[in-house]
Amino acid sequence: MAEQANSTGRRRRRWPFFVFLALAAVSLLLHATKVLRDKEISGRQKQYAELVRTRPVAATKARRARFYQIRYFLGYPMAVSYAAADLVRRVGAIAAPLRLLSVQIDPGLQDMGFELTVELAGVRPRELRRRLTFFLERLRRVPNIVSADFSGPGPTSRGGGVRVFTVSGRAEIQP
């Protein structure tokens, strides 16, 4: 019986050793993980310092800005010609009772000014005003037209009851 009492005492004294061994192993693993993370962080800091020193973002922005400038200026004549042709086609489609005599387009950087000369023949003054107002409303609803209004003092008369009006305005150039 005395031997059994001594063996249970040894078992009781061994468990703190195993707990200490487990804690030491966990501590060692955590320390190794910390060292690896510190190395990774220092590597990232060096990489970031190199990135700041070389400034690739600024260089990329400059190259991209230059690309879009070149693209804009090389594509500008084609964009303006397409926008002008589209404007003339749309105005010609809505000017059905009126006759479109001339179109003058003055392109700018972002928009273009236009001047239309419209002829209306054989109509009484009230009917004339109604048709012109209707034409102007339809013209203002055309996509990309910013403003449109009659310019000049009013209609000029030709022989045979023909009246000529001038409409001026601005239209956007779509890229």
List keywords for this structure.
rod-shaped; 175 residues; 5 strands; alpha+beta; 62% helix; five-stranded antiparallel β-sheet; 2 domains; 3 helices; Alpha-Beta Plaits
Question: What would you note in describing this structure?
Answer:
By secondary structure, the protein is of the alpha+beta class. It folds into 2 domains: 2-54; 79-172, Alpha-Beta Plaits (2-Layer Sandwich), CATH 3.30.70. Helix content is 62%, strand content 22%. It is built from 3 helices and 5 strands. It has helices spanning 2-54, 56-94, 125-140; strands spanning 99-107, 111-121, 145-150, 156-157, 162-172. Strands 1, 2, 3, 4 and 5 form a 5-stranded antiparallel β-sheet that branches. The model has no long low-confidence stretch (mean pLDDT 84).
Task: Kindly summarize this structure in a few lines.
This protein is an alpha+beta fold. The chain has helices at residues 2-54, 56-94, 125-140, and strands at 99-107, 111-121, 145-150, 156-157, 162-172.
The major beta sheet can be summarized as: 5 strands, antiparallel
What structural class should be given to the helix and strand makeup? Answer: alpha+beta
Helix proportion of residues, in percent?
55-70%
Topology-level CATH name of the largest domain: Alpha-Beta Plaits
Q: What ranges have pLDDT less than 50 throughout 5 or more consecutive residues?
A: none
Overall number of domains: 2
